[in-house]
Amino acid sequence: MNVVKFEGGRELEQALADLGKRTTAKRTAERALKRAAEPIRDKWVQLAPVGDGDLKRSIKIGKAVKGVQRQLRGSVAAMFVGIDESENKRLRIYGPVQEFGNESNPAQPAGRPAFELTKHEALNRLADDLRAEIEKTRARAAKKTARLAARAL
Fold first, then answer.
1. pTM
2. Which run of H or of E encompasses 22?
3. How does 14-45 read in b/e, with b if 16+ C-beta sit within 10 Å?
4. What average pLDDT does range 26-53 have in this prediction?
5. Residue 133: how many other CB atoms lie within 10 Å
6. Which H/E stretch holds residue 60?
7. Closest CA to 40 of 120, 115, 121
8. Residue 52: DSSP 8-state
């Protein structure tokens, strides 16, 4: 697992915690994470070997798998960019061989280079989108509180 840190993360994490419900914070973070992962996915699709439509179509953004979620226990949310093997069973074997190679086939990496080329853009997008999503969530919560207060009168 590759970990990259950015400035302002603690403040954003606190702002998520201040939203109240854990599910609200999780959904807010997931929306921002999904948009932040788009440059990585797009670059990976661009760098994938020419003529391999199955592989390109299977590069997805999704919620982190259970094992990764367990490793990130304290985190609000986790997303991944990777090969969706459920779509095409042969990719379960072919995808990793394509990326890392084996004794018969040289590696043709696209995932790691895509991450390395776009990680700063993705992190900047994450920070901006997370701030915007937190503000939108706060506005929705304030609107709901006002609506409920008006009904109570």
1. 0.77
2. helix 22-47
3. ebbeebeeeeebbebbbbbbbbbbebbbebbe
4. 88
5. 22
6. strand 59-63
7. 115
8. -
